[in-house]
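ok, trying the design again with the full structure, not the truncated one.
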C-alpha cells in the first residue's frame, strides 16, 4: 500500500535546521543514530504530519474578534493540557482570518505551545485557529493525533532542550521542522493510546476521590475545633 504523505508544511520562514539534538525518549532534532525498538521506526515528523503555524489577528481591529472561530491562546492550552479542546476564551471570525496569517485548522490538530510557556499540548476538538505561540501538526493516516500528543507529553520539560532564547525560551520553526519521532504501526499506536487513556481516567478518578476525602477531613477538623472551644467536645 502506498504510504500517505501530508501536504507540504505551510509555516514558511527558515528551512529546517541541520543540527542534531539526540533523543531522550522518542523525539529528536535531526535523524538520530539510535536504533528504533523492534517494529518501530524513526521518521521526520513533517513526513507523517503537516506542520502549521498560528497567528493573532490585529487587536487594533475589534471587528476581527468575536465570531464562530475558536482561537487558542496559551491560557487555553494550559487549561486543556493533555486533553482535547472544544471551546476557547476568545473567538475570531472570517474577517480576522482573512486579514491575518492565522489559519483555521481542522479537528484533531495537535497544538504545542512553543514560546515562553513551552510544552502545553492539546488537540482541537473542532476547527480552530491558534496564536503564533503554537506549532501545530495535522496528522496523516500513519500517525494518530492522540499518540503524538502522548509522545509530546512524555517529553515534559525535556522539550526545553529544543528551545533557545536569551529572555524567553522558544522552540523556533527550524528546530520544529527538523523534529524526528519514533513510532510504531498504527495498530500498535491504537493499543498504546487505549492503555494510556485508561491510566489517565483511573488517575483522575483517584485524584477526585482523594480530594473528596481531604475535603471531608477539613470539614471534620472545623467541626471538632468548633466543638472543642464551645464546650461541646
Amino acid at each position: 500500500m502506498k504510504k500517505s504523505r501530508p501536504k507540504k508544511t505551510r509555516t514558511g520562514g527558515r528551512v529546517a535546521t541541520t543540527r542534531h539534538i539526540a533523543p531522550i525518549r522518542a523525539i529528536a532534532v535531526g535523524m538520530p543514530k539510535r536504533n528504533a525498538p523492534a517494529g518501530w521506526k524513526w521518521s521526520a515528523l513533517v513526513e507523517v504530519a503537516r506542520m502549521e503555524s498560528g497567528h493573532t489577528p490585529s487587536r487594533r481591529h475589534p471587528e476581527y474578534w468575536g465570531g464562530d472561530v475558536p482561537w487558542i491562546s496559551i491560557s487555553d492550552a494550559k487549561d486543556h493540557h493533555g486533553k482535547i479542546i472544544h471551546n476557547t476564551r476568545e473567538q475570531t471570525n472570517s474577517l480576522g482570518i482573512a486579514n491575518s496569517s492565522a489559519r483555521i485548522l481542522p479537528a484533531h490538530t495537535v497544538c504545542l505551545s512553543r514560546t515562553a510557556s513551552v510544552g502545553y499540548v492539546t488537540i482541537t476538538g473542532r476547527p480552530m485557529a491558534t496564536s503564533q505561540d503554537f506549532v501545530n501538526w495535522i496528522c496523516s493516516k500513519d500517525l494518530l493525533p492522540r499518540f503524538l500528543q502522548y509522545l509530546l507529553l512524555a517529553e515534559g520539560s525535556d522539550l526545553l532542550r529544543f528551545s533557545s532564547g536569551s529572555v524567553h525560551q522558544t522552540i523556533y520553526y527550524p528546530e520544529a521542522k527538523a523534529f524526528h519521532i519514533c513510532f510504531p504501526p498504527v495498530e500498535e499506536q491504537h493499543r498504546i493510546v487505549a492503555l494510556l487513556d485508561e491510566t489517565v481516567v483511573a488517575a483522575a478518578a483517584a485524584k477526585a476521590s482523594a480530594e473528596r476525602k481531604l475535603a471531608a477531613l477539613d470539614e471534620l477538623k472545623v467541626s471538632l475545633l468548633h466543638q472543642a472551644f464551645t464546650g461541646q467536645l
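Keeping the full-length input from now on. The longest strand covers residues 65-72.
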